[in-house]
Design brief:
By secondary structure, this protein is α/β, with parallel strands linked by helices. 33% of the residues lie in helices and 25% in strands. It folds into 3 domains: 49 residues, no CATH class; 115 residues, Sandwich (Immunoglobulin-like), CATH 2.60.40.3500; 213 residues, Aminopeptidase (3-Layer(aba) Sandwich), CATH 3.40.630.40. The N and C termini lie far apart (55 Å). The longest helix is centred in the last third of the chain and has 37 residues. The strands form 3 sheets. Strands 10, 11, 12, 13, 14, 15 and 16 form a 7-stranded mixed sheet that branches. It has a 5-stranded mixed sheet with strand order 5-1-2-9-8. The chain is elongated and about 70 Å long.
Length: 458
């Protein structure tokens, strides 16, 4: 084995690329992920990559991202380990630049992401789907774009995707687009008030999984994900990660009872559209749908949990603000909703109302009862906001087929809430409280938590 290593090192030195290898080892993430006992093998594989024998790194690496205000233009730069294909989209309402890249290993410093610069108001990034990593740049005003991909000028330097933004009019920005905006698969122009619904499905019935064991289907929806991180903290804590962790704790707590069949709308950090989230619950014939979030506000003093149900009118300004924020989920992910005229939107909305309004009213009442049970149990294990039972027009709660509640687990702007949400013991207490509440809700004589029969096939 030692001889083999020496041979490889000899080859590397002869090819005059040892320095390049060292730079790769410093920048790449492999040595942070693999224990020291495998580092020799890793070195051999990396050498093999350099001399063209094999490819170790399946995903290009983003080393850094930065922006500069040059007065006449704002420059946005992404440093990459290799050349990649990319696609640009220019979107209005609000003005955004979308960059679609192949799946990436994002290693850029987190501190770069909150920086405002020139025409750039903010930017976000994340896995959009299995084949696309998306970067969305929010603009202060319309801008035309000039982009170029630059190869390294010397050994050891990264490849660079350079985006120059120059102030312009709306017409100039949109007329300069090289391609049409992303087609909205929902065929609507607003994610909140124009979602199309199918006719109400039949009421869920009992699941027969193992002989006579009846299980209640619970669907848990960890908010945000992928391209949309949700709320963030200065320390780098992301809402999308916290709620996914909490969802897994809650799922385990339900499954330990043996009385529930539990599904998550996402199992990992990926983008899931609002309509698909409650569609998953419909397809699974859910008895209960719980959407998890952890908001952030300006005041660091306000903290505690709260519960939201669907209503046509928000119970408070804060509820309306939160609903508006969550309903703009798909805009933040780089979707556009400008393709459907307002008249068509209204027609779609009226047709949708005819199909599900009655069923939805029933489920809104059931959702309020579920929220009360959750409120009763959660306040035993943690702080709740004043008037913790709230309501607003959340798009993700609009299914007419099952009771739906959005649970705010706390505020990422509140230090105590952040400490709690980082604590496994606190998440376990939340999970236990939620299980107790759902069990009480579903044990009533007029049981709404009745999933459908699974027919066995011999």
């Amino acid at each position: 084995m030692k001889k083999l290593i020496l041979i490889y090192l000899h080859v590397v030195i002869k090819l005059n690329i040892l320095n390049n290898l060292i730079i790769y080892l410093n920048k790449m993430y492999f040595l942070r992920c693999i224990s020291k006992r495998y580092s020799i093998w890793l070195g051999i594989l990396l050498v093999a990559k350099v001399v063209g024998i094999t490819a170790v790194c399946a995903e290009p690496i983003v080393f850094d991202v930065r922006s500069y205000d040059h007065g006449d233009k704002t420059r946005f730069v992404i440093d990459l380990s290799e050349e990649v294909d990319y696609k640009f989209l220019r979107l209005p309402n609000p003005y955004r630049i979308v960059i679609d890249l192949p799946p990436l290993n994002w290693q850029a410093p987190l501190k770069r992401e909150s920086k405002k610069e020139g025409l750039i108001a903010s930017f976000r990034h994340g896995l959009f789907n299995a084949d696309t990593y998306r970067v969305v740049i929010d603009l202060e005003s319309p801008a035309v774009v000039k982009e170029q991909f630059m190869s390294p000028r010397e050994e050891g330097k990264p490849y660079r995707l350079v985006v120059d933004l120059m102030s312009s009019s709306r017409r100039a920005m949109l007329s300069s687009r090289k391609m049409k905006p992303i087609i909205n698969q929902m065929n609507t122009s607003r994610p909140f008030n124009t979602i199309k619904f199918a006719a109400p499905g039949r009421k869920p019935q009992f699941v027969d999984v193992h002989k006579d064991v009846k299980k209640i289907v619970v669907v848990i929806d960890p908010g945000h994900g992928g391209i949309d991180p949700g709320a963030t903290t200065t320390s780098g804590l992301l809402e999308k990660k916290i709620v996914l962790l909490a969802a897994k704790f809650i799922k385990s707590a339900f499954e330990r009872t043996g009385r529930h069949q539990v599904y998550l709308t996402r199992e990992k950090d990926k983008f899931v559209r609002l309509r698909k989230r409650f569609k998953i619950a419909q397809n699974k014939r859910a008895g209960v749908f719980l959407s998890l979030h952890a908001d952030s506000i300006k005041s660091k003093k306000i903290g505690g949990m709260s519960l939201y149900t669907l209503s046509n009118k928000a119970s408070s300004r804060e509820a309306a603000r939160l609903a508006k924020k969550e309903n703009e989920f798909e805009l933040r992910a780089g979707y556009t909703f400008d393709d459907v005229p307002e008249s068509i939107q209204n027609i779609l909305l009226e047709k949708a109302k005819d199909g599900f309004q009655k069923a939805q009213m029933v489920e809104m009442e059931e959702s309020n009862l579920l929220a009360k049970e959750l409120n009763s149990e959660l306040r035993k294990i943690g702080k709740m906001l004043p008037n913790s039972l709230r309501s607003a027009g959340f798009a993700v709660l609009k299914s007419p087929d099952h009771p739906s509640v959005l649970i705010e687990l706390g505020f990422l702007s509140n230090p105590k809430d952040v400490r709690n949400l980082r604590s496994k013991s606190h998440l376990q207490r939340i999970a236990s409280a939620i299980v107790k509440a759902v069990d009480k809700f579903c044990s009533r004589t007029s049981n709404p938590c009745t999933p459908t029969f699974h027919v066995r096939r011999n």
